[in-house]
Design brief:
Length: 455
């Protein structure tokens, strides 16, 4: 067919039509060539969300976005791997993971995202560390992979440039939480990294981009199939995202908690997610004989200090000064990170068990405190965030401190109420179950515990 114009493609999708391959490719081309107004991109994204993208349209969109730039190529003897999360609240899994995995000879050319909607971004969190440079030259990347084993950068130059534009417009048009858009965004840039294995952390729950378990599984299966179809050994780990991960939300606070995890002091849920995803990369890469063994190998790097050394090496390689690294190593965090002007405590209003800690409410509150962006281009306040002193399943007495809100004057009464109401206290002791199931190509989804016992 002959494509006449962007409004014509827009109109077809608005009316619920299934787009042909060349119509999707034309849209992506226009996004890259800037031959389209941002309002038209926003309208198209909203039409995708409201009218839906079929499986076929999603695959075409993903490939068109990947092909909008270059696919990286590496020394064929290197075992290239990566990890990506669909986004959550308090999700700091990447940091301990990138510290542990390269210790086993695997190389991670990580392209990380910025905050998106209520979810924080790996790149923003790293920029909370003074001196850290997220942009690298291609020559520096190559050298880093050879000598250090891992870098973390944002999408640069020609890596899935279509996603760079779409991502920033999704963030401010309420079109983040639509599974086919999440799939095309993640897989286009991960496939462009030139990796051999990929582990995907697909979140399921109120604060994830896919709220229901069915949607999360659909997304996981779609991404695993696309990855597999493109020759990448892809596994998805489905994890729960009703409750924030660990005890911190906010850029500096999350980096500090990650460093503590690498020192062997991490919260149990964070340790577990990192161990399963890292263990899966070791298992898929033939380094561990079982997933369980891979998990133990990852956790050992936290106990013996090698993960911390590797993370500090990664930071040093990306611009962080020696003195700062030493302060991070010795835990003198207050001398490194920007401090908030105020710390407001939130108290329990009754005794009982914490039945729920609403990650969506706390993620949104952190954005409103300045820890995320409300408009594209907003400057992030690294110092703000929420530190939980109690979490789901904990027993509390009336008057106990539930959380501390770190802020710089943005904590309105309404926001304070929202944070307080994020904690539901009742009579039921309801522990968090974080790792739910594992999705591999050409195999049924397997409940995590069953999967473990099979190996
Ligand atoms: N991470 C991404 O890179 N894209 C999304 O859409 C969601 C999470």
């Amino acid at each position: 067919m002959v494509i006449l114009s962007v409004p014509e493609v827009l109109s077809k999708k608005r009316q619920g039509g299934e787009l042909m391959d060349d119509e999707i490719e034309y849209f992506v081309e226009c996004v890259c060539n800037k031959e389209i107004d941002r309002s038209q991109i926003g309208a198209m994204l909203m039409a995708f969300c409201l009218r839906g993208l079929s499986r076929k349209e999603t695959v075409t969109l993903t490939k068109a976005m990947m092909n909008s730039g270059t696919v990286q190529q590496w020394d064929p003897s290197w075992k290239m791997v990566d990890k990506h999360s669909t986004g959550g609240v308090g999700d700091k899994v990447t940091f301990p993971l990138v510290a542990a995995v390269p210790l086993f000879g695997l190389k991670m050319p990580m392209v990380a995202g910025r905050g998106l909607g209520h979810t924080g971004g790996t790149a923003d969190k790293l920029e909370a560390i003074p001196g850290f440079k997220i942009s690298l030259t291609e020559e520096h990347m190559m050298r880093t992979l050879r000598d250090v084993g891992c870098y973390i950068t944002t999408q640069f130059g020609n890596i899935a440039p279509a996603d760079q534009t779409l991502y920033s417009i999704r963030d401010v048009t309420s079109t983040v939480c639509y599974a086919p858009l999440v799939c095309s965004s993640i897989m286009s840039k991960k496939l462009a990294e030139g990796i051999g294995s990929l582990v995907l952390d697909v979140k399921s729950g109120v604060a994830s981009t896919t709220e229901s378990h069915e949607q999360a599984e659909w997304l996981a299966r779609m991404m695993v199939d696309i990855g597999h179809g493109m020759g990448v050994n892809t596994t998805a780990v489905l994890t729960e995202m009703h409750t924030p991960i660990g005890y911190t939300i906010g850029n500096s606070l999350e980096i500090i908690e990650s460093l503590e995890c690498m020192k062997g002091n991490g919260p149990a849920d964070l340790n577990k997610i990192v161990a399963v995803q890292g263990g899966m990369l070791l298992y898929d890469g033939g380094i561990a004989e079982t997933l369980e063994q891979g998990e133990e190998m990852i956790l050992k790097t936290f106990r013996n200090g090698t993960a911390l050394d590797k993370f500090l090496e990664i930071l040093g390689n990306q611009g962080v000064e020696k003195e700062t690294l030493e302060l991070l190593r010795t835990g003198k965090y207050e001398e490194v990170f920007a401090k908030p002007t105020y710390i407001q405590r939130i108290f329990a209003h009754q005794s009982g068990y914490i039945e729920k800690v609403d990650a969506m409410a706390l993620g949104t509150a952190t954005v409103l405190l300045g820890g995320g962006r409300q408009l594209a281009g907003d400057k992030i306040d690294f110092a703000v965030g929420i530190k939980l002193l109690r979490t789901k399943g904990d027993k509390v007495e009336n008057g106990d401190i539930l959380a501390e809100v770190h802020h710089n004057g943005q904590l309105t009464t309404m926001l304070q109420t929202r944070i307080k109401e994020a904690f539901l206290i009742g009579e039921n002791d309801a522990p968090i179950r974080r790792v739910l199931s594992i999705v591999k190509p050409n195999a049924p989804t397997v409940d995590y515990e069953v999967y473990r016992s099979q190996h």
